[in-house]
Amino acid sequence: MAGFILSSRPDGDAEVELLGEGRAMDVLVRRDGRDVLVVQGDRLTREDPPRHASLTDLAAWTERAHSRYCAVLVREDRATLWSDVGATCPLHWARAGRTLVVGTSAGALLPRLGRPAVLGDAERSLLPGGRFAGVTAVPANSAVTLVVDAYGEDPVSVHRLAHLPDLASVTDEDQAVRTVRTVLGSSVARLAAGADEIAVSLSGGVDSSTVAALAVLEAGASAVRTYTVGTPFGDEFAQAAWLADRLGTKHEEVLFGPDELAGMLPGMIHALETWDLLTLQIAAPACFLQDHIATDSRQVLLSGYGADLLFAGLGGTGDEEAVERAVVDQTRATARSNEFHPAFADARHTSVRHPYWSREVMAAALDIRGRLKVREGEAKWVLRSAAADVLPAEVAWRPKRGIHEGTAMSHMFAAALGSDDPAVQAGRLYEIATEVFRSGGPETGPGETDRDRRLGGMA
Fold it and tell me: Most buried pick, 3, 136, 179, 342, via CB within 10 A?
């Protein structure tokens, strides 16, 4: 993967080490006098960063020029680290004596700390501040300023970069539907621009189907290739194939089995830097698809992920405030879960772009009241209403299971880990994580996993 570690020492020297060779994410290192700017991101434009610029101007540039990003600026005796609106490019800091180390991989920072890696436990995969003792993650949509020469880990300041609604306010259904339609169309257009061919992960449900339909409107059916992942325990092949035929896209069905999952898990845990069972269940079909389509050339893959979180697709029980609170909690949780982490895809030269997780779509969705997200028992009502302009009604209003449910990931993990008990599965994932992070981790590139090996002591 393309990442970096920056080491900033008390004497003012700043050294940047590049990690990996992924072609999807760029790393820019810019020295401007004694200032050092390092940015990791998925570039959408070739616009150069402004010189001698304020943090405000640099943050605006990172947002314009990338689909996702993280960055650090060392200026005088301060280091400022910032993230995109969803922390989809995780960035971490730690202290190695009086040297401040900043990196895109928490696991890569561990050897710099001069002490054994300390992980969370099997039931709590997050330690305070991150997954590893002594390593702290930059919060989503935030700029964190640190003193370079210090022993303590507390920042000088933390401030929010972009305004997102603190409370939802929009109750007018026509306004809400129109806004969702507009911002989602703009997001897909921005993320698809310039790609010769666009891949879309397609389930046949409203979330991914809307992205696929908008991509076809933007680039034409001949430029869009759709993929659907299924397992021996469940698939949505028929629904996805029907829509792909209607849209006119090139379409492929990909079968994912327990042996492939078992072989992928060490690399997934290493790349995503999590051993949380639910997060890995969510990520597994996407990671398998990224491995399947990997070539030596850079690719763009659009995902429908995130819509369930923003539009109350994961459950609409309780009153309106309960729905709105759940949306905020679920959205905020992704900044620490690493489910949007780009490392696995980047090692396969694939830029995974999430139209629902753009600043504009998130801001619009978070401003819509719960009554328009869950209406008369229909989850994601406002999204379905907006999607009805570009999708057949049977797709726009089709009930959708979670991304890990449609491919029966619970059965897949039971088969791969040798138990259907979630506590046992969590314990075995923790064992893998302990081995991975204390040994330096496996290679995570395509074709480097053992496809026939089962995990957790299975014969």
Answer: 342
Residue 446 belongs to some domain of the structure: no
Quick: pLDDT tens for 370-418: 999 999 889 999 999 999 999 999 999 998 665 555 458 999 999 999 9
Alpha-helical runs (H) found in 106-153:
106-109
Give the pairing of strands 78-83 and 35-43. unpaired
444 φ, ψ to 5°?
A: -125, 15
Query: Which CATH number is 353's domain given?
Result: 3.40.50.620
Strand residues in 195-324 grouped as ranges (E): 198-201, 224-230, 250-255, 299-302
194 backbone φψ class: left, alpha, beta (φ>0; ψ -120 to 50) = left
Using alpha carbons, list the distances in angstroms from residue 216 to 223, 243, 249, 385. Answer: 8, 12, 8, 19
Residues constituting the chain: 459
* CATH code for position 96: 3.60.20.10
Coil, strand or helix: which one is 8? Answer: strand
Residue 16 domain flag: yes
Please give the DSSP secondary-structure letter assigned to residue 139.
P
Question: What are the tokens at 441?
Answer: 């981790």
Contacts of 331 (CB under 8 A, 6+ apart): 309, 310, 362, 366
Q: State whether 249 and 388 are in the same domain.
A: yes
**Measured distance between the N- and C-terminal CA atoms of the chain, rounded to whole angstroms:** 33
Number of helical H runs and strand E runs in the chain: 16, 18
Q: What is the domain count for the chain?
A: 2
> Which residues are CB-neighbours of 174 under 8 A, at least 6 positions away?
none
pTM: 0.92
Same domain, 348 and 327: yes
Write out the H or E segment, with its range, that includes residue 342.
none
Q: Are residues 70 and 95 in the same domain?
A: yes
